[in-house]
Amino acid sequence: MPAIVGIGSLLSKASAERSFPVYNFRKARLHGWKRIFNLVGVHSIRTGRANLETLEVAALAAAEDSNSSILVSLFEVPVDEMSQYYIREQRYVHRKVIVTEEDGSQTEAMICEQNTESQYLEVNCNGDKTIYNNIVGDVWKAPIWYNFPDGVPPNLDPPAVFPIRQYLRLCLSGAESLNIMDCFLDNTFVYDGRTLRKYLSDNPDIAEETAPHNVQESDNLKFGTRPHESSAVGAAYRPSSEEKPNEKQ
Description:
- It is globular, with a radius of gyration of 17 Å.
- About 25% of the residues lie in helices and about 25% in strands.
- The two termini are about 30 Å apart.
- The longest helix has 13 residues, at about 165-175.
- The protein has helices spanning about 15, 40-45, 80-90, 115-125, 130-135, 165-175, 180-185, 195-200, 205-210, 230-235, and strands at about 5, 25-40, 55-75, 95-100, 105-115, 160-165, 190.
- It is built from 10 helices and 7 strands.
- It is of the alpha/beta class and about 250 residues long.
- Strand 4 (about 95-100) and strand 5 form a beta hairpin.
- Strands 1, 2, 3, 4, 5, 6 and 7 form a 7-stranded mixed beta sheet that branches.
């Protein structure tokens, strides 16, 4: 069966199982990658989960970074269910990577890599602006991918995007369940360059909020989720005992 790497909501086994059957759910390490909140969640904007006033509209993607190493979830999905994975993660570049299992063995798996606006239009939307416009509509006028390999466009408006709170809480809950919270906080970045740990420290109200009971977790499909325990976010910007706070994750 094909192996899948989870970096955000797929850190939660329950979240993954709402989309497709999951086998052998476990933890692994991926060298040379980091996480970044740089995908605008247009579905979340439509459903009111994203906040346009505060620009809390972003979901996670994986990005190559030779100085980073992240802990991830790893699991298998039946071949005939992979279409559901591609539907759920339709905004991304789907790339095969090599992850290191806890026993030291290596496994090839699929990851959701960050896209660019131009590639998303040409590849994911088959170069058809009608498809793109049907997806994005009138809810967002700027690029949906805040990834600019050729330089940030002049007069980019808005100049930055920030994590969708409900989605962030789901990701934190998944990281807590895998006991990888330190790694998640220190090797996950907001678009403006801050680590997630710094971002949460700068915005302590996120940790103090009670998660709503109707949290939905995918930007592409509507999935109901269970309410999350407040402990997942309440401890988010404090060092945990999982690994040393200053150790490279």
